[in-house]
Amino acid sequence: MESLVQRWSRRVGVTVAVRVRDEFVYVDDVDRGVPLVLLRETAHPEFWSFALGRGGRYVDGCLPSGAWTGAAEKILDHAWTYRVTAPPMPDPLSYAGVVPALVEAVPELREDLEVHVFNEHEILPHVFLDLDVTPFVLDAWARGDSELVGRCLAFLERAMTAEDPDTRSLVGTSFVGPVHPWDPAVADFLAIWPPALARQARREIGE
pLDDT (tens digit, 9 = 90+) per residue, 112-164? Predict the structure, then answer.
């Protein structure tokens, strides 16, 4: 990886310092003395997750395609453009920002998101919530992991009350609905839901 980064740096004309620690690769812009990007290995060798340097620290971001992971050179190119333009991060509760924000709040979902992006080549919020997040939360509930369930529901409650109607629709359609709130088997689970999620569950039941 270090040789790849150095080849990239010569191509764009920037001096970088590369530090490798376990699965992390830190790339610093030597000329300006600031972090450029932090790369992290994933389960798929050709894909890396990453955080972008901003204000001397790292912040989670995504590629212009919306992908949370990608090839190392693509990420480096994006990090270089980002360093120059520093675009604002999406509103974490907007439809575009809600899945990355969920994974930041619940890091246990990160590997699921990496696999999702590997398969879909981008973030598809409805697919991710329906096929990954909902089974994940139900499994945590079945295991009795109340702390993890609490973090998931707290974030989904915030999303359910977001200003963005697409975000609210996302949670209602692809989390609340797939839980099957009309099924007596999930009654105890629904009993701990916060108000906005509980209201949406009642709508699904027809109350």
Answer: 888 888 788 788 999 999 999 999 999 999 999 999 999 999 999 999 999 89
Q: pTM for the full model?
A: 0.60
Element (H, E) at 49: strand 48-54
CB 160 within 8 A of CB 197: yes
Q: Which runs of consecutive H residues, i.e. helices, occur in the chain?
A: 2-12, 72-85, 98-105, 110-120, 125-128, 134-143, 146-160, 165-171, 177-179, 187-190, 195-205
For residues 3 and 46, what is the distance between their CA atoms, to the nearest angstrom?
A: 15
Residue 125: CB atoms within 10 A of its CB come to 20
Q: In terms of Cα–Cα distance, which of 21, 72, 23 is closest to 43? A: 23
Q: Which two tokens stand for residue 159?
A: 């999303």
